[in-house]
Amino acid sequence: MMAAGGEVAVPLLGTKRRHDGCPGCRLDEANKTSTGIPYLNFFYIWIVCLTSTLPIQSLFPYLYFMIRDLKIAKQEQDIGFYAGFVGATYFLARTFSSVPWGIFADKYGRKPCIVISILSVVVFNTLFGLSTSYWMAIVTRGLLGLLCGILGPIKAYATEVCRKEHQALGISLVTSSRAIALVIGPAIGGFLAQPADKYPNLFSKESIFGRFPYFLPSFVISILAAGSCIACIWLPETLHFHDDEKVEAIDALEAQVAVSNLEGGKAKEDSDTDTSTKNLLRNWQLMSAIILYCIFCLHDTAYLETFSLWAVSSRKFRGLSLTSQDVGTVLAVSGVGVLVYQLAVYPFLVKYFGAIRPLRPAAVLSILLLITYPFLANLQETELKILINIASLLKNVFSATITTAFNILQNTAVTQEQRGVANGISVTLMSLFKGVAPAAAGILFSWAQKHMTGLFLPGDQILFLMINMVSVIGLLLTFKPFFNMSSALRRS
């Protein structure tokens, strides 16, 4: 169609013009011609996300013993207090860097952000394992959180590297890899910490692993991260590097039409909140999903910190008196179980119920399950090990179901050009909540051990009750007026 002056007019809802040399355009063309699932790209995403997440909570099984050996705590009941701040440092540091990393990814590409993040894991995770003082551990964990900005961009990347019908699978892979890493990481920490004591035939007291008893798990994770950094070579860039106002106008208009179609053809009541490309904070669909996601992340992180400290604490404090290796075994079983669930069960769940509808039942079941935890301290030996494995597996399955739903909601609430920043906002708030969680859980755990009697409930029951209340609050907020489930189901 010819416009005035002989120029070729761009159709209002036409196909976006391809730009030679633009990696985003090349990927769009490839996705148009190939309708299948991009298994290879998804595999690279899964590996990169897995290895970048391993350090986050790998320290929890041995953190109790590490703080004890660093001799910062004056009495046994204070170990949890100091351990909480080490666990919190990573998330608090990430709070300040997540939005800048999102802006960086939107401007310079997803791939450079991913590579820098993986390299930071290699360097600072290794240094953490070599920590000889409490403050060295704090600083190295903080730098790791500050420079590992992969979480927001990798979520955006997973939705951009594939066709629209495969986006839920892409987000599910990111969520599942992180969920698995958050249990396999502690398993690595549990099995490989203090190797000279656990495996004296392989590691001597005079070796580097004997002199630095918590270096081996960090070293192994850093090696895996270095391998995934090599895998980044084959990751295609998804960002469009061109300045075409017509293409951007088409993108914005297509996004409006897509949202309108998902709502059954109804015009949106408030264009400022739902289609604005300038002010994400006024997009209530996005912000409500982020806030709920943060609340459940607060619960999950506080749970893992508490579980790791409670499981290794002595029976006199109504702990389970497990070793770090026992905790590693429990978390490894949970990791394998979550992987099987995500690959074999979750796709059928999504097929029949959708990705969003199961989140409320999962939250209710998680709350009921956690109520039983304090009573596990009454069990012994075999029955304890069997039930604690089952409970941990179910808890992580419920958490994976909930976080996958909210990740999908966040990424379907915005257009591609906004996803880096939107996920940066999400990661910033989530990191703040996760930063508070270990510190608060450590303080609460220390308080509970000092107040086992004399209150309306034993200290351990109050501890798990307080953690459970976070999930209860999150569950209540999934109802109107805070969150509109019907609208979320239509949009997803």
From TrEMBL:
The keyword Membrane applies. Residues 41-486 form the Major facilitator superfamily (MFS) profile domain. It comes from Urochloa decumbens. It is a multi-pass membrane protein. PROSITE patterns: MFS. It is found in: Membrane. The keyword Transport applies. One of its GO terms (cellular component) is membrane. This is Major facilitator superfamily (MFS) profile domain-containing protein. The chain crosses the membrane at residues 42-67, 79-96, 108-128, 134-157, 169-194, 214-236, 286-310, 330-350, 362-380, 386-409, 421-447, 462-483. PANTHER family: MAJOR FACILITATOR SUPERFAMILY (MFS) PROFILE DOMAIN-CONTAINING PROTEIN, MAJOR FACILITATOR SUPERFAMILY DOMAIN-CONTAINING PROTEIN 10. Keywords: Membrane, Transmembrane, Transmembrane helix, Transport.
